[in-house]
Structures are given as C-alpha cells and as structure tokens.
Amino acid sequence: MAAPLPQLAGLPPQQQQPPPGALREISPVFLCRIGQETVQDIVTRTMEIFQITRATQLPNGVTQSHAVYQDRFGKLQEHLRQLALLFRKLRLLYERCVEMTSDLQEVPTELVPYVGEELVSVRSEPCSPGVIQERQEVLEKVHQKNQEMKVLMDQMRNLLWDVNAMLTLRK
C-alpha cells in the first residue's frame, strides 16, 4: 500500500515527502504515532498561549511599555499560527489514516454504548471458585462502604441544614 505522506504546510517540497523507497514503510500505526506527537505539540502550544495571556496585564490605566506589548502580541500571534498549522496537520493525518484503514473488515465498537443500544456480550472464561468467592466478598465490601457513605452524607446534609437554619435565625 504505497501512500504518500500528507502535505505539510510551510515545508519545502523536498522535505514534505520521504524518498519513494520509504513510502512502502508508512503504516497507519506510524501515522498514529505522528498524530500523537502532533496532539502533544498542540497541547504544549495551547499551554504556552495560556501562560502568555496570564502574564499579560489588563489595560487598567497602568502604562505598560509598548515594546513589551508588541513582543507578547507577536509571540501570541506566532503561537496561534503554529496551532492552526498543527490542527491542519492533524486533520491530514486523520484523513490519511482513515483512508488507509478503510479496507479493514472489523468495525470499531464504542467503549461506552449509547442509551437504548444493546450491550455486546463479552465472552469470558469460567472462573475458579476462589476467584468467584473473592469477587463476591469485594462486592459485599463495596456495598457496605456505599451504605456507610450514604449514612455519612445524610448526616452531613442534616448538619448543614441545621447550621444554615441557625444562621438564618441569627440575621
């Protein structure tokens, strides 16, 4: 399945694609790894944008150096431009990955089913009696802890109700 890499904006044509012999080695897994790195770059850029905006003072009458303002504004614009490029790259990687894996017969299932959907039964191996007993004990402990927490929440709710009632009577 010889497929070219997605065109990346901003790179010269000789750096956009590997040599023709390397095209056979490109797999969806490799593209997903590049996509993962791209998502990490997106998160890093976004964090940097938030740090720049947090460090920027609001214009509340305090005179700030125009050069500092222009510098921060330039950095912010560059980060936003790079962020847009990274999102385009991610979109291209996604589309290429979908294109490369469209011939797979297996349809991925959702991890969390929608309301009203039937749950797909998972085939499980029979467990030993010890494992079944341990599971039952854990379930009983969880049920007991849930009951204890419910009692504590009810007590806390009643206590807060009493405190609020006393505070309103005080006014």
UniProtKB/TrEMBL annotation:
<protein>
    <recommendedName>
        <fullName>Mediator of RNA polymerase II transcription subunit 30</fullName>
    </recommendedName>
</protein>
<dbReference type="GO" id="GO:0003712">
    <property type="term" value="F:transcription coregulator activity"/>
</dbReference>
<dbReference type="InterPro" id="IPR021019">
    <property type="entry name" value="Mediator_Med30_met"/>
</dbReference>
<keyword id="KW-0804">Transcription</keyword>
<feature type="compositionally biased region" description="Low complexity">
    <location>
        <begin position="1"/>
        <end position="14"/>
    </location>
</feature>
<dbReference type="GO" id="GO:0045893">
    <property type="term" value="P:positive regulation of DNA-templated transcription"/>
</dbReference>
<feature type="region of interest" description="Disordered">
    <location>
        <begin position="1"/>
        <end position="22"/>
    </location>
</feature>
<keyword id="KW-0010">Activator</keyword>
<keyword id="KW-0805">Transcription regulation</keyword>
<keyword id="KW-0539">Nucleus</keyword>
<dbReference type="GO" id="GO:0016592">
    <property type="term" value="C:mediator complex"/>
</dbReference>
<dbReference type="Pfam" id="PF11315">
    <property type="entry name" value="Med30"/>
</dbReference>
<comment type="function">
    <text>Component of the Mediator complex, a coactivator involved in the regulated transcription of nearly all RNA polymerase II-dependent genes. Mediator functions as a bridge to convey information from gene-specific regulatory proteins to the basal RNA polymerase II transcription machinery. Mediator is recruited to promoters by direct interactions with regulatory proteins and serves as a scaffold for the assembly of a functional preinitiation complex with RNA polymerase II and the general transcription factors.</text>
</comment>
<comment type="similarity">
    <text>Belongs to the Mediator complex subunit 30 family.</text>
</comment>
